[in-house]
Amino acid sequence: MKWTTRLNAAVLIALALICGCSNNPYRSGETEEQTYFSSFSRAPEKLDPARSYWMHESAIIDQVYEAAFEYHFLNRPYEIVPLTTESIPKPIYYDKKGKLLKRKDPAPEKIGRVEYVIKVKPGIMYHDHPCFAKDKQGEPIYANVTLADIKGYDLPNDFECKGTRELEARDYVLQIKRLADPSISCPIYSTIKNYMIGFEELHDTYAKMFEDERAKRKKAAGASYNQEKDEQENPFIVDYLGPEFEGAQVLDKYTYKISLNAKYPQILYWMCMHFFVPMPIEALEFHCQAAMIEKHIVLNRCPVGTGPYVLTRFKPNEVMELRRNPNYHDDFYPSEGNPGDREAGYLDDAGKRLPMIERQVYRMERESMSRWRKFLLGYYDSSGVASDVFDSAINMQMGSEAMLSDEMKDKGIKLLTSVSPDLTYTQFNMLDDVVGGYSEEQCKLRQAMSIAIDHNEYLDIFMNSRGVLGQGPIPPGLFGYRDGKEGTNPYISKWDPVRERHVRKSIEYAEQLMVEAGYPNGRKPDGTPLTVHYDHSSSGDPGFRAQFKWMHRRLQLIGIELKERGTDLTRYRQKRQKGNWQIMRNGWVADYPDPENFLFLFYGPNSRVKTGGPNSTNYDREEYNVLFKEMESMQNGPERQAAIDKMMKIVQHDAPSIWDLHPVSFQLFHSWYKNNKPHNMSSNLVKYQRIDPELRRQMQLKWNKAILLPVYLLIALGLLAIVPAAITIYRRDRGL
Amino acid sequence: MKETITAIWNNWYFQDFLVLSLAGTLTFVGLKLAKRDFWQIAFRQIFQRWSVRICFTILTLYTTVAVLDSIGYHPYLRDKDGDIELHPETKQPVVDSKGVSVLDIVLRPLKNNAENTFSAPLSDQEFAKMTFTTEEGEVVRDYKPLDHPGKHLLGTDRIGDDVLYLCLKGIRTGMVIGALTTLLVIPFALFFGIVAGYFGGWVDDVVQYIYTTLSSIPPILLIVSFMVLFENPGLPQLVFIMGITSWTGLCRVLRGETMKLREAEYVQACEAMGVSRAMIMIRHIVPNVMHLVLITVVLGFSGRVLAEVVLSYIGISVGAETVSWGSMITGALPELSRDPAIWWQIVATFLFMLGLILPANLFGDALRDALDPRLRTR
What we know:
The structure holds two protein chains of two kinds.
Chain A: H1 2-20, E1 35-40, H2 55-64, E2 69-71, E3 80-82, E4 92-95, E5 111-119, H3 169-179, H4 189-192, H5 199-221, H6 227-233, E6 248-252, E7 255-260, H7 267-270, H8 281-287, H9 290-294, E8 309-315, E9 319-324, E10 359-364, H10 368-376, E11 382-384, H11 390-393, E12 394-396, E13 402-404, H12 406-410, E14 414-419, E15 422-428, H13 440-452, H14 455-462, E16 467-469, E17 493-496, E18 501-504, H15 507-517, E19 531-536, H16 544-556, E20 561-566, H17 569-578, E21 583-589, H18 596-599, H19 608-611, H20 622-632, H21 638-654, E22 657-669, E23 673-674, E24 690-691, H22 693-703, H23 709-734
Parallel strand pairs in A: 1-10, 19-20
Antiparallel strand pairs in A: 2-3, 4-5, 5-7, 6-7, 8-9, 9-10, 11-22, 12-13, 14-22, 15-21, 15-22, 16-22, 17-18, 23-24
Chain B: H1 2-10, H2 12-34, H3 37-47, H4 50-68, E1 72-73, E2 100-101, H5 102-106, H6 108-111, E3 125-133, E4 139-145, H7 163-199, H8 201-216, H9 219-228, H10 235-245, H11 248-262, H12 265-273, H13 277-313, H14 325-336, H15 344-371, H16 373-376
Antiparallel strand pairs in B: 1-2, 3-4
Helix pairs in contact in B: 3-15, 4-7, 4-15, 7-8, 7-10, 7-11, 7-13, 7-15, 8-11, 9-10, 11-13, 12-13, 13-14, 13-15, 14-15
């Protein structure tokens, strides 16, 4: 009797557990709020807006910090609109002698100085942050804290006392000065220094201040000085306010001025990025205390800004959480958009106060499959389409748009595709004796290789045809890109009217080019096959081997033998720095929607080897450089288009790299997730979006009905297995 | 330095020489041993078992494939029509520095059957839908028919290579890693083990110190740091480093056995008669530890083949130009989570590895039963 009662109890408990359980990964009730659920696959490392240059990091940074301007949410082509400012500033031109130029659009060579005066809106407040907390005397509460004072705190949001302050023009200027700080090594420093007056000098001044301070400390401490340890314990902030800086100046509390040495309209695009956000001096002082650094409460982990969201949980390998900033300034959903936006429902929320989503939760998902399943069950609100599941999710019909499979459609999932303003390109080292050079023969060799490596096949094999074959450096959607037949690269492509896409010229033509290049049949003059090296740092990448073998096979069609040269990332970078390589493959993501951002990848003075710039092919062609300088400062228009067309012809002929492709991004959204027009420039989109939690809850319940039968069967089997044991025990008890 | 290593390694005539001398040495040793009663009895005993006979046959098959893939020659370069190309000036034929192995020639039909991308075993169409132009000139999105339908016994991989062909080519890599590493291990282990065991004292201390230190460092760590030294590490480097990290186990066993043999009566007798120590070691101790060497070698062989898979997974592999099972498995893993899954790559590789490792292990066990006297009496 004793045994059976216990057994019954166990079964009852098990049943109770099963019925009470669900597969919901969140706390109960969590999904019923205005909360956005998403995932991330790579841990952000730097959240300091002057340091980070990664997409997955700006996804957080741009929601907490706010630059002066932003891109319009609905309008295409992309349009800059004020965010924390009154208006978009107009450039004020001065000639070389400092005289104001009256003409609206003077010739670039006349200009000696360009100024932008930016007026910040009054009344914008930072989110509540302990660095602004002041005691009765007006002194900061958290100055000179010790480790004991901040025990148990992980993020600034956890601190007991918090305060806020109004946004002022000096905060923007401070951040611009930080970009010149050598200890920060800002990724865009090398670009900005070419334009901003006094930027390079400021950098040198800071570098000198560092050296002096180091020398002083070393002298004071004597021979046993441990620089690393000392700087950890007694960090020194550069006195940003000290040195004079002409490039960015505060005019009054709400106004500041940017001065450039040449006409450079792209500066406004740069100022939409998180490099040009306001940085309160209080935050620097707060985070640069030794105890804070010890506890890793530093700017790289703790953003502070005026943006719509506050980072409230940051476990970069597990979960991140953002909450609405209660101090957020007046910001409303746009009431105008492109034609068709109203029909698509993008204007349903017009005029509503932003942000609408209260909370965002991002969870780490390393495996694409598990992320995908959770999306299908409704536990993530949006998802990309991994190529593993592409066929089961998407129906691609010829001549029509990509469509969702029936299963997805039944769930009300929405698919949005857009060509990303990215360029994937296979670079040739122009300094190399074999694949580089500017003679007609050398250009023909590169053209022949470009034809042989047919990226249409690459797209089919590796990317489910999700991409557009590249014809030149400029991706679709940017000014200067020519679509269709007239955009064809005449040296390597032709237009296929049936499939409406570019195709490579024939291998026979490539063979002919090889003959003209002096490598008939791919043979060098001494009769041996031409061997070229593919330099890479992805030996450990499982997908790399197939890609390499594919390239190898394609080049073999014209008799070229491709060999790999794999190294670790550090040595790979060294090779690039020294120009000691032949072929590499890389990608470039648009910083801003202007063709200059792509054409400067081939501008001679930007050469990686010579100046450390972004031109890693080291391409340097005089005509191109001249045209680039002209095109750079032009307004978009037929004149600029003509200059770009000329430049395109030059790079297409010289072929300093193979224009591989521009990827097409596929994004899936659940029906309860509103206002998600694809936007490839901004990372600050969640504030426009809205969740219908009730619909989400219903769908989640509908899609996650537990199938309990197998569980019962399993229990029944387990019980059956007990029977023989029970019989044995019964017999033994009876002494049988 | 690195270029020369690769150049020598890639020279087929050097490899032919290596393979032939290896085969010669093995035959010589085999014939020598076959004269001895102990080995004759042992081999007769193990070959009585049918399982051993099967294992031996399978191993011979693998070895044959590996040997065929290790001997080759450098033919003259030919153009697309198959005519020999001549040097533009000297009008002499040009030698192909890449060369071909005998196996390459045998498998040429398989290699040339490449498709565009994935296709299931024995299928006549591609695995995923693709946009293409049909023979009628119509553009459709459908499963594209293969160029060689039904010819791929084990399917094709992402870039359309026949998986059977890849698996067969992987045999050599696996065997080279298993066998060559072993060959590197034996001299080290034999020398240090016997010297330490026989002389004892400070010699023993030094050897012990070396191998305990070496074996206390995780081998993966050593291998990783060693491979970083090279610009473009490949198979020879991998074999070398795996060799010098794995001699300690055998060394330890040999040291112990030698310590035991040192006290044996016949060794004592030799010493009493004034035979030199070197002679004693060579004539009396080495032959009497050979069975241990054989057992450890055969059992260790499979471990090394498996180690290559793990190393491939953490990104240390034989280079993208060499086919290896480890890199095939690593490359096939992400395809498993596809929907529907691409299973044939991993299954084929698994079967081929199993086919080598299981017989090697069974054979090794049988050898141990036969050769280790303590187990023989059982």
